[in-house]
Amino acid sequence: MVQGLQRVVVTGLGAITPIGNDVSSYWEGLSTARNGVAGITLFDASRHACRFAAEVKDFDPSGWLEPKESKRWDRFCQFGVIAAKQAVAHAGLTIDESNQHRVGTAIGSGVGGLLMMETQAHVLKDRGPDRVSPFCVPMMIPNMATGLTAIALGAKGPSSAVATACAAGSNAIGDAYRLIQLGLADVMVAGGAESAITPLGVAGFASAKALSFRNDDPTTASRPFDAERNGFVIGEGAGVIVLESLEHAQARGAQILAEVVGYGMTCDAHHITSPTPGGVGGAEAMRLALKDARLEPEAVDYVNAHGTSTQANDSNETSAIKSALGDWAYQIPVSSTKSMTGHLLGGSGGIEAVAAVLAIEHNLVPPTINYQNPDPACDLDVVPNQAREHTLNVVLSNSFGFGGHNVCLAFRRMA
C-alpha cells in the first residue's frame, strides 16, 4: 500500500456455489471436503464428450428476486445479484440517498449470458427474428450482473464489469480495492459471477481439450496437482464481497472480516490459452501483490491456488509460487478449492476471495480433494483431502485466465 491511500477492509460476504448456496453452507462444504461434481442436469449431455459439471444445486431465487426477474434474467445475473444481496446483508450495510453515490459495484464475468445467447439463437433459427426476446442483448452482455446489482441495491457510485476470463472475479475485486484506496468510493460490492454450463459452453471447452473426460467417475475428475489430472471441471455460481474504506467501516461500527492489502496483475503476452512456461507472469503478479502490501514472502501463511486440475496450469503455478516465495513456498500450505467447486471461470476469483477471508477467520485451510498421486512437478504442500488447522494472518489468492491474465490478491487478518 502506498502511504496516504485509504486502507480497505472486507465487511460482507456472499456466495452461490456448487457446494452451498450461502456463505455458511459454502464454508461447511469447504471445511468438510464436500464434492460438488456430478452428472449434468441443466441440459441433455448424452451426446457430449464431457457429461458432468459442478452445478449449483437446489437453487431457489425466490425470496431474493421477483418472479419476473427470475424468468427474464440469465442465470449468471441471478447468481451475481443474489450473492451481492447476501454480502450487503452480511455487512449490515444500508444504501440510501445519503450514501448511494459513494457505493459502487464491480462484478466480473468471463462469458456473461451464454444461456440467453444460446436460447435466443435457437429462437432466431426456428421461429424467426421477430420472436427474439427484447431481453436478449441486455441479459447476454457480461456487464449485466454488475448493472442489475447496482439497480437492485440503488448503488450509484463507480460501476464496472471486468471480462478477463478466469481472472475476472479477482480483477473486479482488485479494481474495487483501488477505487476505494484512491478515495473514489467509500464502498464497493465486488466479485464474479458465471453460468456457462450450457451445451455450447461445455462443447467449446471440451473441443479445446480443457475439460476432464472422466465420465466413468466424475467425482474424482477435479484433482488439482495430482499426477493423473487431465482437465478441469466446469462449475457455476458467484462470489461477492463488500469492500469499504477502514474509516467508513469504523464510522458505522461494521464488523471487519479482513483487510485487502495487495493486488498484483500481469499479462503473459504469450498464448491465447497456455501460460508462459515456468509461470513467469503468475509469479510476477504475486510479487506485485506482496510489494503493494509491503510484505515479505515469509509473511504469507497460505496460498489459495488457481489450481485448475489441468496439466499446464498446475505445474506452472507451482513454479510461479516457488519463484515468488522462494524457499518459503515449501513451508506453507497451498491448496485448490476448485477440487470441490469445479472451475467457475470468471466467478472463481469471487468465491475464492470469500474462501480466503473465511480461512483467515477460522484459521483453517481448505483441502485439495482427490489428491492421490504425487506429481514431482507439483511438489508443494497441497493439503491433501482434509482441511487443516493453521494460523492464518496473510493469505494470497491466485487467478489466471485465458489470454494470459494473471491476478493475485493479498488478504490480511485485521489487527
UniProtKB/TrEMBL annotation:
Name the domain of life this protein comes from.
Bacteria
Spell out the PROSITE patterns in the cross-references: KS3_1, KS3_2
Q: List, for all copies, the residue spans of the domain called Ketosynthase family 3 (KS3).
A: 5-413
Q: What is its EC number?
A: 2.3.1.179
Q: What is this protein called?
A: 3-oxoacyl-[acyl-carrier-protein] synthase 2
What Pfam families does its record include? Answer: ketoacyl-synt, Ketoacyl-synt_C
- What chemistry does it catalyse, as a reaction equation? (9Z)-hexadecenoyl-[ACP] + malonyl-[ACP] + H(+) = 3-oxo-(11Z)-octadecenoyl-[ACP] + holo-[ACP] + CO2; a fatty acyl-[ACP] + malonyl-[ACP] + H(+) = a 3-oxoacyl-[ACP] + holo-[ACP] + CO2
The text of the family note is: Belongs to the thiolase-like superfamily. Beta-ketoacyl-ACP synthases family.
- Signal peptide span per the entry? none
Q: Which gene encodes it?
A: fabF
**Which residues are responsible for catalysis?**
166 (for beta-ketoacyl synthase activity)
Source species of the chain? Cyanobium usitatum str. Tous
Record carries keyword Nucleus: no
